[in-house]
């Protein structure tokens, strides 16, 4: 069960990264070229947010099940990373994407919609890239 959730959480990172990168770059291009905010663009932003909410649910399950979350081992970089750093940064990133989506939906000007998505999704993307436990960190995490 735990293994299955870890694999799902690990694989879904690529869906999140691909959608978030696409949404951020499309928003930048459309903002700079004054393009309209289309239904297709809105759906890309929506599916990006949904993929992150699924990741949040899997992450919450892992937070309570994984032995890498251990608050009595805070001197150890790996335990500190999973217990505090990964969790906090990912929660902030998910909140940013959610706020960005809602704000852009409420904005009246098309250029403002693109700008909000670019800023909120872009900052979330940077945070996620930093907070992923990439295999080269040496804690035994895989690429998929
Ligand atoms: C977009 C958001 C997130 C991404 C892209 C992400 C990505 C990852 C990746 C790639 C791993 C390593 C999996 C492996 O071992 O191969 C991982 C592990 C983990 N994540 Fe996340 N995560 C996200 C959000 C969260 C959140 C919000 C939480 C907690 C509330 C969380 C808790 C954990 C825990 C506890 C582990 C360690 C699991 C273990 O190896 O036992 N994650 N995450």
How far from one another are the termini? 17 Å
User: What's the alpha carbon Rg, rounded to whole Å?
Assistant: 17 Å
Count of alpha/pi helices: 4
| Category by helix and strand content | mainly alpha
Ligand types = protoporphyrin IX containing FE
Write out key terms for the chains shown.
single chain, 144 residues, mainly alpha, 4 helices, elongated, binds protoporphyrin IX containing FE
Could you walk me through the main structural features you see in this protein, from its secondary elements to its overall organization?
The structure is a single chain. It contains 4 helices and no strands. It is elongated. The protein has 144 residues and is mostly helical. It has one domain (2-137). Protoporphyrin IX containing FE binds next to helix 1, helix 2 and helix 3.
Topology readout:
Layout: H1 2-32, H2 39-65, H3 77-106, H4 110-131
Bound molecules: protoporphyrin IX containing FE.
Concise structural overview:
The chain is mostly helical and 144 residues long. It is built from 4 helices and no strands.
